[in-house]
Design goal:
Layout: E1 3-5, E2 12-14, E3 16-19, H1 29-41, E4 46-48, H2 60-68, E5 78-83, H3 98-112, E6 117-122, H4 131-143, E7 147-152, H5 157-170, E8 174-177, H6 192-199, E9 202-205, H7 236-239, H8 245-253, H9 255-261, H10 265-275, E10 279-284, H11 289-296, H12 305-314, E11 316-317, E12 321-322
Parallel strand pairs: 3-4, 3-10, 4-5, 5-6, 6-7, 7-8, 8-9, 9-10
Antiparallel strand pairs: 1-2, 11-12
Helix pairs in contact: 1-2, 1-11, 2-3, 3-4, 4-5, 5-6
GO molecular function: oxidoreductase activity
Organism: Actinoallomurus bryophytorum
Keywords: Oxidoreductase
Length: about 350
């Protein structure tokens, strides 16, 4: 496993973060335990979750992760969670108000069975709450010892800059952003990455294999494999936008590139995001331990410039041109209204 500093702070994280967005639920607790055990065996020390994961059984993913990590020496792992998205039925069960941040943090600590979280992240930006209120609440949690470091997720450059300024004024560490990033989704490259680098924030990226698209298991004009995310009512909302034939054909053009590098397509995708110096860690989920072991093998693999160029070339065709989404305006667009493109 490769280990990296998280931005300008002192925290070290594993280059692969184990995430449990769609894979941990009360019904899948035993399988989750096996996957967490496999993650630890592979040298993963960083685990990412959120108060909303497992909805409508809010907090289920945190509880499952906490149980799976029970008995593991607390100082040997980094536990990351988030607050903002709706985590209950009430009007204050969402957003970044002081009330919701405080209550959600305490609930997350109980769910996870820990006295503190290593990184507490604002899951989205809240336009309805003053940023000063949000950052002061976060700073208070840091001073209380319940949170060690602060991060954001899917924030725009101006929002990150304003939060970083307030964090510095309050004397707390804002060290990371958690955006979506993959070969197919590069909307952070133009503005978010340079802004973050200037401010000392690292990226902990999610969906590096584009919801499974970059594993090559979805074939152009083919039927989605049984029990894949594309056949799941919940998961299909997210992967569906990638399943146009032109995009799937481009993924197949990566096979010889991966073969020559001695990698699977999934490993190539994870190694690609980790190649960016602004990225400290890539979040990988798994429904089976062997998936985790495969993706973890990408940590520390370096891709030479020729391989990077061939990857870029694979996502260009004569009909659609560039198949990669690069528009910075797509940052933080709700997933369920994102259209498919390049079909």
């Amino acid at each position: 496993m490769d280990y990296r500093r998280l931005g300008a702070g002192g925290l070290t994280v594993s280059a692969i973060t184990y995430g449990n967005w769609l894979t941990h639920s009360s019904e899948a607790a035993e399988n989750a335990r096996r996957c967490v055990a496999a993650a630890l065996d592979e040298g993963i020390t960083t685990f990412d979750t959120a108060d909303v994961y497992g909805s409508p059984d809010y907090g289920a993913a945190e509880r499952v992760l906490g149980a799976a990590l029970s008995g593991v020496r607390r100082g040997s792992v980094e536990i990351l969670t988030k607050v903002c998205l709706p985590s209950g039925p009430g009007p204050n069960d969402r957003g970044l108000s002081r009330k919701h941040i405080m209550e959600s943090c305490h609930t997350s600590l109980r769910n996870l069975g820990t006295d503190y979280v290593d990184l507490y992240q604002a899951h989205r930006y809240d336009d309805e709450t003053p940023l000063e209120e949000t950052m002061t609440a976060f700073a208070d949690l840091v001073r209380q010892g319940k949170v060690l470091y602060l991060g954001v997720s899917e924030w725009r450059p101006a929002q990150i800059e304003a939060a970083a300024a307030l964090a510095a004024e309050l004397g707390v560490s804002l060290v990371s952003n958690q955006p979506q990033y993959s070969m197919l989704w590069r909307v952070i490259e133009k503005e978010v990455l340079p802004t973050s680098e200037r401010l000392g924030l690292a990226q902990i990226v999610f969906s590096p294999v584009a919801q499974g698209t970059l594993t090559g298991k979805y074939l152009p004009q083919g039927k989605a494999p049984e029990q894949s995310r594309a056949t799941d009512a919940r998961g299909s909302r997210f992967v569906g936008r990638y399943l146009g034939d032109s995009v799937l054909s481009a993924v197949q053009r990566l096979r010889p590139v991966a073969d020559e590098a001695g990698l699977t397509l999934a490993q190539l995708a994870v190694a690609w995001v980790l190649q960016n110096p602004g990225v400290s860690s890539a979040i990988v989920g798994a429904s089976r331990p062997e998936q985790l072991r495969e993706n973890t093998a990408a940590a520390g693999r370096k891709l030479d410039p020729d391989v990077m160029a061939r990857i870029d070339a694979a996502f260009v065709d004569d009909v659609h041109g560039d198949l990669v989404e690069r528009d910075p305006a797509k940052i933080a667009t709700p997933f369920d209204v994102m259209p498919a493109w390049k079909s």
